[in-house]
Amino acid sequence: MKKSGVLATLLPLVAADSDAANPQLRVAFHGDDGMMVSWNTFNHVPRPSVFWGKSKDHLTNIASSAVSVTYPTSTTYNNHVLIQGLKPDTTYYYLPAQLNEDTCYEPFNFTTSRRVGDKTPFSVAVVADLGTMGSEGLSTSAGKGVSSNNILRPGEKNTIDSLISSMPEYEFLWHVGDFAYADYWLKEEIQGYLPNTTVEEGYKVYESILNEFYNEMMPVTASRAYMVGPGNHEANCDNGGTTDKAHNITYGLSICMPGQTNFTGFKNHFRMPSDVSRGTGNFWYSWNSGMAHFIQLDTETDLGHGFIGPDEIGGTEGEGASPVNSKMNAQVNWLEADLKAVDRRKTPWVIVGGHRPWYLSYKNVTSTICWSCKDVFEPLFIKYDVDLVLTGHAHIYERQAPIAEGKIDPRELNNPTSPWYITNGAAGHYDGLDTLQSPRQQFSRFSLDTNNATYGWSKLTFHNSTHLTHEFVASNNNTVLDSATLYKSHKCEWLER
Ligand SMILES: *[C@@H]1O[C@H](CO)[C@@H](O)[C@H](O)[C@H]1NC(C)=O
Ligand SMILES: *[C@@H]1O[C@H](CO)[C@@H](O)[C@H](O)[C@H]1NC(C)=O
Ligand SMILES: *[C@@H]1O[C@H](CO)[C@@H](O)[C@H](O)[C@H]1NC(C)=O
Ligand SMILES: *[C@@H]1O[C@H](CO)[C@@H](O)[C@H](O)[C@H]1NC(C)=O
Ligand SMILES: *[C@@H]1O[C@H](CO)[C@@H](O)[C@H](O)[C@H]1NC(C)=O
Ligand SMILES: *[C@@H]1O[C@H](CO)[C@@H](O)[C@H](O)[C@H]1NC(C)=O
Ligand SMILES: *[C@@H]1O[C@H](CO)[C@@H](O)[C@H](O)[C@H]1NC(C)=O
Ligand SMILES: *[C@@H]1O[C@H](CO)[C@@H](O)[C@H](O)[C@H]1NC(C)=O
């Protein structure tokens, strides 16, 4: 694009040679008429600004903020600008002002969420446990101890490739925790995959993996709303569960990047629409699009009994387990109020996403199975007829039956009264897939694990107010390896509470 006159004259452009190479551009829905535009720069931007408009050649509007934030050891600033007054289901063009110094970016485009109650069919992509792809993450090689099943075959497409090539098929991307796996830097070094660095310089490797991930995601996140929630790897300080046996060092408590503790990096990087859904930060909030109400929950902190303690988070969590906000019941009270307020005539579908599962064919360890989540969330899911619960955390794919209090709904997918559960943490990341228990639990309906050596993501399609299809898309070739359709009559639910 030509440098627009407006760009050059109205704004004090911040000179930063390499900012253009590191924009990590991402957008997120914000209420019925807003879009949050976020991007990173190496320098502080006093007044982050975004030009926008309905025509690519006339970015006649400008939105600005004073939000350019960072934290100790971060190598970048996170800029956030909210654009408001947008029409639903409409494509707009935009360009962050500070991006165009050295690289002449074309304007990007995003499409706003559907009007609440719009019954047009649409699809969304859902991932968890994705991780950086390439030389700092999942690739065709790995370090010592990584199963050969979990390494990409030469030429094999990864999940980010698949999400990019499938963009025309989904309207937004929902990522329910575990992003870059930057905390794996040490594990990758100890396993001989990355060159060793010193503990003091470790943060540079950490930040490099983090920046790489968000840049790899940019082809998707610059034009599809990227809705996110917290996972343990946004706060783990165990660096992937690594002990350096050769030197008798357990790094668990000793190497903890500020970007990991208390979810600091995660809090800086995103601005989810909790302000317009009475939620809390990027931790719990909700939004609507068309005939669906989406709820992001936090399985990492702030459960009804307080917060998940170190034992439940995996034993070596250290300070990262500190609660974000330890107000007892804050999240659960919010969830009930949010569910109660849903108008099922407009949004018959209610879909919940959270990081940790509880119904899963997996060894019964609290580091994976979140019983405290089940205790506080499940009663509300049942009471308010949540249709589908999506989780990750275990690096497998398992589609379960609709279940309530451990009992399989006899109606299965034919108008069940229990929530349907699906766990898909099989998107990728450095050391790949896990193993499910054999035989599977009785509620298991379809599953893939390390034995199948297949990475993939979830595609949800809302056909109308009664039919919803979930598909597992194999990243390698974009084929659907599993498909199941839920029928819900959704009749007069608002009368039955
Ligand atoms: C929006 O941007 C994407 C690239 O991210 C491009 O493929 C697409 O054609 C653009 N859409 C419009 C309507 O310009
Ligand atoms: C890094 O150090 C570990 C021992 O802590 C060693 O096993 C590994 O091979 C080293 N990696 C490289 C790339 O030198
Ligand atoms: C490893 O270090 C711990 C203390 O951190 C010590 O108790 C233990 O004896 C050491 N083990 C070996 C094999 O040196
Ligand atoms: C995390 O947040 C808590 C509560 O605000 C605070 O007490 C604690 O010091 C923080 N920990 C770190 C490592 O920043
Ligand atoms: C799983 O472990 C929890 C405690 O961690 C226990 O309460 C529960 O009964 C166990 N469930 C099964 C099916 O073994
Ligand atoms: C996944 O792998 C298991 C074990 O090898 C096999 O029995 C099963 O058929 C595979 N599933 C698919 C869908 O390929
Ligand atoms: C696509 O890839 C998956 C594994 O990722 C494989 O099971 C399947 O057979 C492939 N399908 C086609 C049509 O190549
Ligand atoms: C809803 O969509 C499903 C799947 O496409 C279709 O079979 C069904 O007939 C549709 N229902 C109505 C009322 O259109």
TrEMBL record:
Record's signal peptide: 1-16
Keywords linked to the UniProt accession: Glycoprotein, Hydrolase, Signal
Catalytic reaction annotation: a phosphate monoester + H2O = an alcohol + phosphate
Family (UniProt): Belongs to the metallophosphoesterase superfamily. Purple acid phosphatase family.
Domain Purple acid phosphatase C-terminal span(s) in chain numbering: 418-483
CDD domains, per the entry: MPP_PAPs
Domain Purple acid phosphatase N-terminal: 24-112
EC number annotated for this UniProt entry: 3.1.3.2
A molecular function GO annotation: acid phosphatase activity
One Pfam family per UniProt: Pur_ac_phosph_N
Lineage: Eukaryota, Fungi, Dikarya, Ascomycota, Pezizomycotina
Name of this chain's protein: Purple acid phosphatase
Originating species: Trichoderma asperellum (strain ATCC 204424 / CBS 433.97 / NBRC 101777)
Domain Calcineurin-like phosphoesterase: 123-397
Alphabetical list of PANTHER family matching this protein: ACID PHOSPHATASE RELATED, PURPLE ACID PHOSPHATASE
